[in-house]
Amino acid sequence: MPLPARPTKTDLIWVLVTSSKIGSRISGLQSRLKQSALGALCFFCCLPVHSTEYQSREGFLQTVFGDQVPAPQTVWLRGSVRENVETILGHRYPALRIRYWAKRPGAETLRSAWILDEIGKELPITVGLVIDDEVIESVQVLAFRESRGGEVRYPAFTRQFSGLSLLENQQLSGTIDGISGATLSVSALKRLGRLALYLHQQISPRE
After folding, report:
1. pLDDT digits (tens, 9 = 90+) for 114-135
2. Which of 25, 101, 126, 206 could bond 113 through an S-S bridge, CB–CB 3.0 to 4.6 Å?
């Protein structure tokens, strides 16, 4: 059986050139794949977040106060107020102050409006709350940004808050029925209800 021929210099050069071409093609393919993946990532990152605004802040305030919306005022989150707000929310509030709008419909009563944000699952829910004489008058979802849990905006759910007050342990005075598939959104609104009632108590002595 004859032995295989020893490769010549020409054969070796051909192998090296061919390998170089294959390596270049593989490198080019990898580069194109990286560019495609980066392009796809940029595309998905630039997609708009699912968000629905049901009512503007201005529209909510006009609904509460009519054409004579009071000037905004501020509650500063300091000392025990900050600590109690963190206890109610379960986390630190992302600002040092919270704005509110208030009027006195009577000599000894105070009606205040609050526009607050709280995370549902991943994104903030914007809620307008009206407190009248330390009792929740109404709750309205102004903007919802999650893909699930938007049922909390319906009056069938939000009307459960009407008439509730804040107990000494900073819990609501009544129960709020949950919604299947919207547990985190329900919890967020309950926290905001407690927060608005607590903040209303802080401004009542000063008004």
Report:
1. 999 999 999 999 999 999 999 9
2. 101
Q: What is the DSSP string of 139-206?
A: EEEEEE-SSS-GGGGSHHHHGGGTT--B-TTS-BSS-----TT-HHHHHHHHHHHHHHHHHHHHHTTT
The Cα–Cα gap between 120 and 185 comes to: 5
Residues present in the chain in total: 207
Distance CA 201, CA 170 (A): 11
Say if residues 141 and 126 touch (Cβ distance below 8 Å).
Answer: yes
Return all residues near 56 (Cβ < 8 A) that are at least 6 apart. Answer: 142
Global pTM?
A: 0.74
Q: Is 127 helix (H, G, I), strand (E, B) or coil?
A: strand
For residue 134, the SS3 value is coil
